[in-house]
Amino acid sequence: MTPLVPQIVIRPEIETAVGEADHGEVARQLTLWEKLVDMDPVRKFSILILLMVVWEAYTQLSGVSELILPKFSSTAAALWAAITGEQLMIMVWNSMKILITGYVIGLVIATVLSTAAIMTRFGSDVLSTLTAMLNPLPAIALLPLALLWFGLGSDSIVFTLLHSVIWPVALNAHTGFMGVSETQRMVGRNYGLRGLTYVVKVLIPAAFPQILMGLKIGWAYAWRTLIAAELVFGGAIADTEGTASGGLGWFVFSNQMDMQIPHVFAGLFMVILVGVIVENVIFTNIEIKTIRKWGMQAQ
Protein backbone atom coordinates (compact mmCIF):
# COMPACT_ATOMS: atom_id res chain seq x y z
CA MET A 1 0.00 0.00 0.00
CA THR A 2 1.45 3.29 -1.14
CA PRO A 3 1.81 5.81 1.74
CA LEU A 4 0.06 9.13 1.38
CA VAL A 5 2.42 11.98 0.65
CA PRO A 6 1.15 15.40 1.85
CA GLN A 7 0.93 17.94 -0.90
CA ILE A 8 2.37 21.36 -0.29
CA VAL A 9 0.17 24.13 -1.63
CA ILE A 10 1.97 27.37 -2.39
CA ARG A 11 -0.35 30.31 -2.28
CA PRO A 12 0.29 33.32 -4.48
CA GLU A 13 1.82 36.32 -2.78
CA ILE A 14 -0.40 39.35 -2.39
CA GLU A 15 1.03 42.80 -1.88
CA THR A 16 -0.94 45.63 -0.37
CA ALA A 17 -0.27 49.32 -0.32
CA VAL A 18 1.75 50.45 2.69
CA GLY A 19 -0.27 52.68 5.01
CA GLU A 20 -1.03 53.36 8.63
CA ALA A 21 -3.37 50.93 10.34
CA ASP A 22 -6.60 52.46 11.58
CA HIS A 23 -7.28 51.24 15.12
CA GLY A 24 -9.97 53.80 15.86
CA GLU A 25 -9.95 56.11 18.85
CA VAL A 26 -7.72 54.78 21.59
CA ALA A 27 -8.15 57.82 23.83
CA ARG A 28 -10.24 60.92 23.36
CA GLN A 29 -10.43 64.12 25.35
CA LEU A 30 -13.80 64.36 27.02
CA THR A 31 -15.85 67.46 26.50
CA LEU A 32 -16.90 69.64 29.41
CA TRP A 33 -20.46 68.34 29.17
CA GLU A 34 -19.30 64.71 29.29
CA LYS A 35 -17.15 65.45 32.34
CA LEU A 36 -20.09 67.08 34.12
CA VAL A 37 -22.48 64.24 33.27
CA ASP A 38 -19.94 61.73 34.60
CA MET A 39 -19.90 63.44 38.03
CA ASP A 40 -22.35 61.82 40.46
CA PRO A 41 -22.95 64.96 42.61
CA VAL A 42 -23.74 67.03 39.51
CA ARG A 43 -26.36 64.54 38.30
CA LYS A 44 -28.05 64.37 41.71
CA PHE A 45 -27.97 68.15 42.12
CA SER A 46 -29.54 68.52 38.68
CA ILE A 47 -32.45 66.33 39.80
CA LEU A 48 -32.96 68.55 42.85
CA ILE A 49 -32.91 71.67 40.67
CA LEU A 50 -35.51 70.11 38.38
CA LEU A 51 -37.79 69.27 41.32
CA MET A 52 -37.48 72.84 42.63
CA VAL A 53 -38.37 74.29 39.24
CA VAL A 54 -41.40 71.99 38.91
CA TRP A 55 -42.50 72.90 42.44
CA GLU A 56 -42.26 76.64 41.80
CA ALA A 57 -43.95 76.40 38.39
CA TYR A 58 -46.84 74.34 39.74
CA THR A 59 -47.56 76.68 42.65
CA GLN A 60 -47.29 79.76 40.42
CA LEU A 61 -49.53 78.43 37.66
CA SER A 62 -52.12 76.49 39.68
CA GLY A 63 -52.82 79.25 42.18
CA VAL A 64 -52.91 76.77 45.08
CA SER A 65 -53.19 78.34 48.52
CA GLU A 66 -49.99 78.75 50.51
CA LEU A 67 -51.77 77.15 53.45
CA ILE A 68 -51.75 73.93 51.42
CA LEU A 69 -48.56 74.17 49.40
CA PRO A 70 -46.37 77.28 49.57
CA LYS A 71 -44.17 78.38 46.70
CA PHE A 72 -40.61 77.14 46.66
CA SER A 73 -39.41 80.73 46.72
CA SER A 74 -41.45 81.34 49.89
CA THR A 75 -40.07 78.17 51.46
CA ALA A 76 -36.51 79.18 50.56
CA ALA A 77 -37.05 82.64 52.05
CA ALA A 78 -38.49 81.10 55.22
CA LEU A 79 -35.55 78.71 55.45
CA TRP A 80 -33.06 81.55 55.13
CA ALA A 81 -34.91 83.61 57.73
CA ALA A 82 -35.00 80.64 60.11
CA ILE A 83 -31.27 80.01 59.68
CA THR A 84 -30.23 83.63 60.14
CA GLY A 85 -32.70 84.86 62.74
CA GLU A 86 -34.69 82.03 64.30
CA GLN A 87 -31.99 79.70 65.67
CA LEU A 88 -32.80 76.88 63.25
CA MET A 89 -29.20 75.66 63.19
CA ILE A 90 -29.18 75.51 67.00
CA MET A 91 -32.30 73.35 66.85
CA VAL A 92 -30.66 71.12 64.25
CA TRP A 93 -27.64 70.74 66.53
CA ASN A 94 -29.90 69.93 69.49
CA SER A 95 -31.49 67.15 67.47
CA MET A 96 -28.12 65.86 66.29
CA LYS A 97 -26.76 65.70 69.85
CA ILE A 98 -29.67 63.51 70.93
CA LEU A 99 -29.34 61.40 67.79
CA ILE A 100 -25.60 60.87 68.17
CA THR A 101 -26.03 59.87 71.81
CA GLY A 102 -28.70 57.30 71.05
CA TYR A 103 -26.90 56.07 67.92
CA VAL A 104 -23.59 55.47 69.69
CA ILE A 105 -25.20 53.67 72.64
CA GLY A 106 -27.26 51.59 70.22
CA LEU A 107 -24.14 50.63 68.24
CA VAL A 108 -22.41 49.47 71.40
CA ILE A 109 -25.36 47.28 72.41
CA ALA A 110 -25.76 45.93 68.86
CA THR A 111 -22.04 45.11 68.72
CA VAL A 112 -22.26 43.14 71.98
CA LEU A 113 -25.35 41.24 70.84
CA SER A 114 -24.02 40.36 67.37
CA THR A 115 -20.59 39.36 68.71
CA ALA A 116 -22.15 37.13 71.37
CA ALA A 117 -24.46 35.65 68.73
CA ILE A 118 -21.57 34.61 66.48
CA MET A 119 -19.40 33.26 69.31
CA THR A 120 -21.93 31.26 71.33
CA ARG A 121 -25.15 29.38 70.66
CA PHE A 122 -26.78 31.01 73.66
CA GLY A 123 -25.95 34.47 72.27
CA SER A 124 -27.48 33.49 68.94
CA ASP A 125 -30.65 32.33 70.70
CA VAL A 126 -30.85 35.58 72.67
CA LEU A 127 -30.47 37.74 69.55
CA SER A 128 -33.00 35.78 67.50
CA THR A 129 -35.54 35.77 70.34
CA LEU A 130 -35.22 39.48 71.13
CA THR A 131 -35.33 40.35 67.44
CA ALA A 132 -38.51 38.34 66.89
CA MET A 133 -40.12 40.03 69.89
CA LEU A 134 -39.00 43.66 69.54
CA ASN A 135 -38.05 44.33 65.93
CA PRO A 136 -41.68 44.47 64.66
CA LEU A 137 -42.55 46.96 67.42
CA PRO A 138 -42.51 50.60 66.17
CA ALA A 139 -39.95 52.62 68.08
CA ILE A 140 -42.26 55.60 68.55
CA ALA A 141 -44.70 53.29 70.39
CA LEU A 142 -42.14 53.05 73.21
CA LEU A 143 -42.07 56.81 73.80
CA PRO A 144 -45.03 56.93 76.27
CA LEU A 145 -43.38 54.16 78.27
CA ALA A 146 -40.06 56.00 78.14
CA LEU A 147 -41.73 59.16 79.44
CA LEU A 148 -43.03 57.19 82.43
CA TRP A 149 -39.57 55.79 83.17
CA PHE A 150 -37.34 58.78 82.39
CA GLY A 151 -39.72 61.75 82.53
CA LEU A 152 -40.03 64.69 80.15
CA GLY A 153 -36.54 65.07 78.80
CA SER A 154 -34.07 64.04 76.16
CA ASP A 155 -33.39 60.75 77.99
CA SER A 156 -36.80 59.49 76.92
CA ILE A 157 -36.01 60.15 73.26
CA VAL A 158 -32.58 58.54 73.59
CA PHE A 159 -34.21 55.40 75.00
CA THR A 160 -36.60 55.36 72.04
CA LEU A 161 -33.75 55.78 69.58
CA LEU A 162 -32.02 52.70 70.96
CA HIS A 163 -34.88 50.56 69.71
CA SER A 164 -34.46 52.04 66.21
CA VAL A 165 -30.72 51.40 66.08
CA ILE A 166 -30.05 48.10 67.84
CA TRP A 167 -32.06 45.64 65.78
CA PRO A 168 -31.18 46.64 62.19
CA VAL A 169 -27.49 46.98 63.07
CA ALA A 170 -27.32 43.72 65.02
CA LEU A 171 -29.31 41.78 62.42
CA ASN A 172 -27.24 43.00 59.48
CA ALA A 173 -23.98 42.37 61.33
CA HIS A 174 -25.04 38.84 62.29
CA THR A 175 -26.21 38.13 58.73
CA GLY A 176 -22.88 39.38 57.42
CA PHE A 177 -20.96 37.22 59.90
CA MET A 178 -22.93 34.13 58.88
CA GLY A 179 -22.24 34.88 55.21
CA VAL A 180 -18.45 34.83 55.56
CA SER A 181 -17.04 31.98 53.49
CA GLU A 182 -15.64 28.91 55.17
CA THR A 183 -12.32 29.49 53.41
CA GLN A 184 -11.84 32.82 55.15
CA ARG A 185 -12.86 31.27 58.45
CA MET A 186 -10.30 28.47 58.08
CA VAL A 187 -7.57 30.95 57.21
CA GLY A 188 -8.27 32.81 60.43
CA ARG A 189 -8.22 29.61 62.47
CA ASN A 190 -4.99 28.46 60.81
CA TYR A 191 -3.37 31.70 61.97
CA GLY A 192 -4.46 30.86 65.50
CA LEU A 193 -7.12 33.55 65.79
CA ARG A 194 -9.76 32.90 68.42
CA GLY A 195 -12.47 34.82 70.25
CA LEU A 196 -12.63 38.60 69.82
CA THR A 197 -9.43 38.67 67.76
CA TYR A 198 -11.02 36.28 65.27
CA VAL A 199 -14.14 38.47 65.08
CA VAL A 200 -12.20 41.74 64.68
CA LYS A 201 -9.58 40.55 62.17
CA VAL A 202 -11.60 38.10 60.08
CA LEU A 203 -15.36 38.42 60.44
CA ILE A 204 -15.76 42.20 60.61
CA PRO A 205 -13.63 43.00 57.51
CA ALA A 206 -15.25 40.18 55.52
CA ALA A 207 -18.79 41.18 56.56
CA PHE A 208 -18.26 44.94 56.45
CA PRO A 209 -20.52 45.61 53.42
CA GLN A 210 -23.44 44.10 55.32
CA ILE A 211 -22.41 45.88 58.52
CA LEU A 212 -22.29 49.22 56.70
CA MET A 213 -25.76 48.58 55.33
CA GLY A 214 -26.98 48.02 58.88
CA LEU A 215 -25.36 51.27 59.99
CA LYS A 216 -27.18 53.14 57.22
CA ILE A 217 -30.53 51.57 58.05
CA GLY A 218 -30.04 52.21 61.77
CA TRP A 219 -29.21 55.86 61.09
CA ALA A 220 -32.29 56.32 58.88
CA TYR A 221 -34.60 54.69 61.42
CA ALA A 222 -33.13 56.72 64.26
CA TRP A 223 -33.46 60.01 62.36
CA ARG A 224 -37.11 59.32 61.51
CA THR A 225 -37.87 58.28 65.08
CA LEU A 226 -36.20 61.39 66.48
CA ILE A 227 -38.21 63.77 64.29
CA ALA A 228 -41.45 61.91 65.09
CA ALA A 229 -40.72 62.03 68.83
CA GLU A 230 -39.99 65.75 68.71
CA LEU A 231 -43.16 66.35 66.72
CA VAL A 232 -45.21 64.60 69.40
CA PHE A 233 -43.45 65.57 72.63
CA GLY A 234 -41.03 68.27 71.52
CA GLY A 235 -43.10 71.02 73.10
CA ALA A 236 -43.12 69.35 76.50
CA ILE A 237 -39.38 68.77 76.34
CA ALA A 238 -38.77 72.36 75.26
CA ASP A 239 -40.87 73.64 78.17
CA THR A 240 -38.97 71.42 80.58
CA GLU A 241 -35.41 72.07 79.38
CA GLY A 242 -35.95 75.51 77.86
CA THR A 243 -37.03 76.70 74.44
CA ALA A 244 -33.42 76.80 73.24
CA SER A 245 -33.24 73.02 73.74
CA GLY A 246 -35.99 72.36 71.20
CA GLY A 247 -35.09 70.27 68.19
CA LEU A 248 -35.89 70.27 64.51
CA GLY A 249 -39.16 68.40 65.03
CA TRP A 250 -40.24 71.03 67.57
CA PHE A 251 -39.49 73.75 64.99
CA VAL A 252 -41.83 72.06 62.50
CA PHE A 253 -44.56 71.47 65.09
CA SER A 254 -44.51 74.98 66.58
CA ASN A 255 -44.72 76.64 63.17
CA GLN A 256 -47.57 74.35 62.19
CA MET A 257 -49.48 75.50 65.28
CA ASP A 258 -48.83 79.13 64.27
CA MET A 259 -49.95 78.40 60.67
CA GLN A 260 -46.54 79.40 59.33
CA ILE A 261 -46.71 76.88 56.49
CA PRO A 262 -43.60 78.10 54.59
CA HIS A 263 -41.62 77.61 57.82
CA VAL A 264 -43.12 74.13 58.18
CA PHE A 265 -41.88 73.21 54.70
CA ALA A 266 -38.55 74.85 55.49
CA GLY A 267 -38.20 72.59 58.54
CA LEU A 268 -39.11 69.51 56.50
CA PHE A 269 -36.62 70.57 53.84
CA MET A 270 -33.94 70.79 56.54
CA VAL A 271 -34.85 67.26 57.71
CA ILE A 272 -34.30 66.01 54.17
CA LEU A 273 -31.12 68.05 53.76
CA VAL A 274 -29.53 66.61 56.91
CA GLY A 275 -30.38 63.09 55.76
CA VAL A 276 -28.88 63.70 52.31
CA ILE A 277 -25.68 65.17 53.77
CA VAL A 278 -25.15 62.29 56.19
CA GLU A 279 -25.84 59.68 53.51
CA ASN A 280 -23.76 61.24 50.72
CA VAL A 281 -20.90 62.66 52.77
CA ILE A 282 -20.30 60.49 55.83
CA PHE A 283 -21.46 57.05 54.72
CA THR A 284 -20.28 57.46 51.13
CA ASN A 285 -16.77 58.40 52.30
CA ILE A 286 -16.71 55.39 54.63
CA GLU A 287 -17.79 53.21 51.72
CA ILE A 288 -15.11 54.63 49.40
CA LYS A 289 -12.31 54.23 51.94
CA THR A 290 -13.30 50.70 52.96
CA ILE A 291 -15.29 48.31 50.80
CA ARG A 292 -14.54 50.02 47.47
CA LYS A 293 -10.86 50.37 48.33
CA TRP A 294 -10.77 46.70 49.34
CA GLY A 295 -12.39 45.67 46.04
CA MET A 296 -15.55 44.36 47.70
CA GLN A 297 -17.83 46.62 45.62
CA ALA A 298 -17.75 47.92 42.07
CA GLN A 299 -16.50 51.47 41.62
Report the β-strand fraction as a percent range: under 5%
Reported by name, the CATH topology is MetI-like fold
Number of strands: 0
Using the coordinates above, name the CATH class: Mainly Alpha
Low-confidence parts lasting 5 or more residues at pLDDT below 50? Answer: none
Total domain count: 1
Helix % is: over 70%
The radius of gyration computed from the alpha-carbon positions, rounded to a whole number of angstroms, is: 29 Å
Q: Could you write a compact summary of the structure shown?
A:
The protein is mainly alpha-helical and 299 residues long. It contains 12 helices and no strands.
Keywords:
mainly alpha; MetI-like fold; 73% helix; 299 residues
What does this structure look like?
With 299 residues, the chain is mostly helical. The chain has one domain: MetI-like fold, CATH 1.10.3720.10. It is 73% helix and 0% strand. It has twelve helices and no strands. Helix 6 crosses helix 7 and helix 10 crosses helix 11. It is flat. The model has no long low-confidence stretch (mean pLDDT 81).
